[in-house]
Each structure stands twice: as structure tokens, then as C-alpha cells.
Design goal:
It is a single chain. This protein has a domain at 62-165. Helix content is 73%, strand content 6%. It contains 6 helices and 3 strands. The longest helix is centred in the N-terminal third of the chain and has 40 residues, at 2-41.
Length: 173
């Protein structure tokens, strides 16, 4: 009898290990794909080269806000979808799944920011030094505030909440 008990414990541990790998793998993939999408969708703000450096007008400052907005929208929607699907699929342990969603979503947010930065325009300081006066130089793609990263974990938890509330709803019998 004890042999079967230890076997089931191993099965649970293996299941948890598999959940970690699946959730982290999904979020890592989503982070890369969303970073690439972000770099394609965003029209970065541009500096205008001046004799003394560079300047950015009001319209260009608005584009900075737009880049952050796109990060939030893309990240939230991707995480929402992942939270829905992964919670429905890997729901043996809702607490573990929720914890993995938060960690995976945080990983995806960081990966998205890194990939978007890498795939977007290069260093504007270097480009401004080499540009002619009056030339437009795009700003690099960066996240301006830590709170913007929270769109990923928030989206994942909202998705998980929909699934968990839906599966625990009282049913008429």
C-alpha cells in the first residue's frame, strides 16, 4: 500500500513540474511574439536634430504615450487569453496555476519589453550625433513606467478568474 501512495505523490510532483514548464513556455513564447508585434505596431516618437542636440515636439511626445498604450493593450490581451486557456487546461491546482500565471506573465512582460527594444529603432543618442541638422531620429522602444508591466499579470489573473468562477458556479441539479 505505501508504494502506491509514494507513486501518486511522484505523479503530483511530476504534474506540477509539467505545469511549470507548460505555463512558463507559453508565456515566454507570448513575450517574444508580443515584443515583435509591439515593435511593428508602434510608430516611435522622433527627435529632430538641432545644432545643440535634439528636440521633440508635442505630437512626438504623444507618440511616447502611444507606445506604452500599445504595450498595455497587447500584453493585457495576450495574458488574458493565456490566463483563460492555461487555467482551463492546467487547473488541477488552482492556487499553483494562479501563482504560475503571475510569474509567467511577469516573465512575458520583461521579454516583450526586451524583444520590442531589440527589434525597434536603435540608440537615438548615437543616431543624433551622426545625423544632419533637421533630420528626424526615432526614439528607441522602451517602457516608461514599471506599472505598465503590470498589464500582463493583471490580464492573466482576470482570465484565470473567469475560468475559476465559471467552474465553481453552483449548478441546478
Amino acid at each position: 500500500m505505501p508504494a502506491s501512495g509514494s507513486g501518486s505523490a511522484r505523479g503530483t510532483s511530476g504534474g506540477a513540474r509539467q505545469d511549470v514548464l507548460v505555463v512558463m513556455g507559453v508565456f515566454l513564447t507570448l513575450g517574444v511574439l508580443c515584443g515583435l508585434l509591439w515593435s511593428v505596431l508602434v510608430s516611435p516618437a522622433e527627435f529632430t536634430k538641432l545644432a545643440s542636440g535634439g528636440a521633440m515636439g508635442e505630437n512626438e511626445l504623444g507618440k511616447q504615450f502611444g507606445a506604452d498604450g500599445w504595450f498595455v493593450v497587447i500584453g493585457f490581451l495576450a495574458a488574458l487569453g493565456a490566463g483563460l486557456v492555461l487555467t482551463a487546461w492546467r487547473s488541477r491546482d488552482p492556487l499553483l496555476t494562479s501563482l504560475l500565471l503571475v510569474v509567467g506573465a511577469a516573465l512575458a512582460a520583461a521579454v516583450m519589453a526586451l524583444v520590442g527594444h531589440w527589434a525597434g529603432p536603435g540608440d537615438p543618442g548615437q543616431a543624433l550625433r551622426e545625423a544632419e541638422v533637421g533630420a528626424k531620429v526615432p526614439e528607441s522602444l522602451d517602457v516608461d513606467s514599471f506599472s505598465i508591466y503590470l498589464s500582463w499579470p493583471f490580464g492573466a489573473l482576470v482570465g484565470a478568474l473567469f475560468v475559476l468562477l465559471g467552474t465553481n458556479a453552483p449548478r441546478d441539479e
